[in-house]
Amino acid sequence: MSAVDKVIEENCKELQGINNLEAQGTNKKMAPDHCFLVAFLIICSTSSLFQAAEIKAEASGDCQRKCGDVEIPYPFGMRKGCYLNEVFRVVCNESTGSASLALTEWEVESINTLTHTLRHKNFRGITLPFNSSRGPYVSSFPPVAGYHYSISKAENKFVAMGCDYLAYLIDEDTGKVQGSCSSLCNPNDTVPLQLSSCSGLFCCEINFPESLRNLTVWVWRTIYRTKGWKNQCAFFTFVEKDFLSFNKMKFPTCNESYVVPMIHEWAVGNTSCNKAKESIDEYVCGQNTECIDYYPAQGYRCKCNNGYRGNPYLPQGCQDVDECSNPEDHNCPLKTHCVNTEGNYFCLPNRTRMLELLIPLGNISPLLACNVSWS
Questions:
Q1: Which segments constitute the NOTCH1 EGF-like calcium-binding domain (predicted)?
Q2: pTM above 0.85?
């Protein structure tokens, strides 16, 4: 019998004695429920401590992880060996402190491994000139860099600026119409106005139902004017939903465009979770994580398991959350105290507090821990 087993047995006997004393007056002995519960929880909580998968490690720990004020978490990185692949390479301008994706013109403002979003402030829309016909006029947005990125439906909206047209947003991957809107203009206004909102006058917007990668705009003119508006153009873009600077944007001309803040979603790999797990070189999720298939980026995402927090793309990036350190993170009732375990916690009656010190030692025999008579 190990020293740990002996201590547990002694404490369980002490608990049994307490139960027997409490039962006096009822001519009945109470079962050693506390002992059984503690042993059971010890076994469950320690079993996960000895389960670890060999996974591909991130490059050396001396990688630079900040450019100016922008945090650059793995799988993104700035030099060879510090990023997953070229699609996640970030270029840092040391003189200005600005970061940009190597394969795009996007100036990165933030990268989040929890929400899998990348915010950049210089997404460039498209300017579409009109002629004497009603249309359709068709123009495509430049393809998103690689298959890893998509335009976030939750964080962005589609905006169209111009006069007297009906615009349709088409997903090229599926052929589905993602939405439409129309913009009208007052025929008595001959001078382009600054926009104070985007509600159908000079400007309309679409909240699209799916995150998108390859987009095309189809436009039909509702009225063609020979007088009034000299600049027969429209401007189309995606912009983050809480963008409020329309009053800073003048009515578009055919030789003018704008850059606006926008948010992309991202994923890793080019296959499903199950396929990626077949190869240690393909699968990049660390310990204590779950893998989630992601569409439309045709890859997958890594997420820390419940009870863990951190970067799921690092081998040991998901660390245990100590719920007991904050009363708001656990729901232990009165006359109990919280005991943190790996990835979880449980509540013990205050009188069994001594047993929690033994839990981190692990490898405890439940039979020895509960070797108490039920008579």
A1: 320-348
A2: no
